[in-house]
Design brief:
1 helix; seven-stranded mixed sheet; alpha+beta
Length: about 120
């Protein structure tokens, strides 16, 4: 177990992937919802992945399925694992744009606790 606030959702190439429960959470200072994951590589340490989608994108249409967004986030994490070793305290943030997760650097909505 990592933290009682997280649930184990997958293993990929020896990496344990944990998602903060319940998944996407509304943040009062942001018109968006954020989901975060902890990844424990087999060598030890921890990597963090965070995903945000804007609630403004849902004003004129059907909101995206959060289950589908979480599945796509998990695939994004698995792709990062496949791309090479994750360093301890690796941190990656993504925003949902035009139907896909796009990496963003130091977004205003994310406060790093690893540095």
């Amino acid at each position: 177990m990592v933290l009682p606030t997280h649930e184990h959702v997958a293993d990929h190439r020896g990496h344990a992937i944990w998602r903060r429960k319940p998944g996407f959470e509304f943040t009062p200072v942001l018109l968006g919802k954020i989901a975060s994951f902890l990844v424990r590589p087999p060598s030890g340490g921890v990597a963090v992945f965070a995903f945000m989608y804007s609630l403004l994108d849902t004003l004129d249409g059907t909101p995206p399925s959060e289950a589908d967004l979480l599945d796509a986030a998990l695939r994004t994490i698995e792709d990062a694992i496949d791309a090479g070793p994750l360093l301890d305290r690796h941190e990656a943030t993504y925003e949902y744009r035009s139907g896909e997760w796009v990496p963003v650097h130091s977004p205003r909505w994310w406060v790093s606790v690893l540095r």
